[in-house]
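Subgroup meeting minutes
Present: P.N., E.W., G.H.
Scribe: E.W.

1. P.N. recapped why we're keeping a running log of single-chain structure predictions: easier to compare across weeks, and new members can see raw inputs and outputs side by side.
2. G.H. added today's entry (133 aa).
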Amino acid sequence: MGSKEGDKEKAAEAKKAKETEAQAKKAEEAKEKAEKKAQAEGKKTKNAEVPKVLVTLNIVPPVDSGQIKSLEEALHESPDLQLVVVSGSATNGTEMVISAENSLPIVDILTNMSPIAQVTKKGKTFQVTLKSE
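Output recorded in log:
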């Protein structure tokens, strides 16, 4: 009789082991499914287009090339603003076009840059006064 009871115990243990294995497999599949869903949602977020705006900065004269270079470097270091183009003429002075997310506080970001003394918004452009070197 001992042998039959031992066989029953082994069968019960085997059944319990299979159930545990099945539960572990289901848990692993659920985890993988959740990870795939999270990755897919992350990709959607990363690929979503953030509205950008182009902003013109009119640099108030007098300025020299060193001041302009300092401002260019500060803009390149900024994670929020991207320098698009720098132009200059005798009539309009120096202008810079930057790209930024539409919702950013551009005046605050520019004001906190070391080469800039003052920023004033004039319509769709910003008048920027640089610190003298």
